[in-house]
Design brief:
The protein has four helices and seven strands; from the N terminus they run E-H-H-E-E-E-H-E-H-E-E. The protein has 163 residues and is an alpha+beta fold. It has a seven-stranded mixed sheet with strand order 1-2-3-4-5-7-6. It starts with 5 loop residues before the first strand and ends with a strand.
């Protein structure tokens, strides 16, 4: 039997937990140097960063503990204004392989549609193979170049899908 989990919108009380998760998971995949999201200013204040009406961020809760999260926001500096970005999707090991990623992906894609976006973009890196499998399973197609201006110049895998 898989552990049960819930997904809900992020709240200010979740900020420290989400920052700790990001800082734990990203180095696990070698993503702690320059050009990675671990250095984004919003890491310490995710609830505030995703409080705008054109954004959404959700957390995964297991046994009362935040164990992961993901969000949607407009793609920074995109020429096309209908493109959002799937952002900061990270899960602790105990939240992997139990369906939380697929449920979170559905939640984020539904939010993107509700917010009026037409396409969803994401950046990742070589070595995050399970994540890339999840993205492909949910209709994301690989691209050979980045979009927008995320500042994550160390990412080397790019995906997009129509909503």
């Amino acid at each position: 039997m898989s552990p049960s989990f819930q997904i809900r919108p992020i709240e200010p009380r979740d900020d420290a937990s989400m920052a700790a998760i990001i800082r734990e998971v990203m180095p696990e995949f070698g993503a702690d140097g320059p050009g990675f999201a671990i250095h984004d200013e919003e890491v310490d204040c995710m609830a505030e960063a995703y409080a705008r009406e054109d954004t959404a961020y959700y957390v995964v809760i297991m046994d009362g503990e935040v164990v992961g999260g993901a969000g949607i926001a407009p793609l920074v500096n995109a020429q096309e204004k209908d493109v959002c970005e799937l952002r900061k999707m990270y899960f602790l090991p105990k939240a992997r392989g139990i369906g939380a990623g697929a449920a979170m992906m559905q939640c984020c894609l539904e939010a993107a549609r509700r917010l009026g976006f037409g396409r969803c973009y994401l950046e990742t890196l070589t070595g995050m193979d399970s994540a890339q499998t999840l993205y492909r399973r949910h209709g994301f197609e690989p691209m050979d170049h980045p979009m927008g201006g995320t500042g994550h110049f160390s990412c080397d895998r790019f995906f997009i899908r129509d909503l």
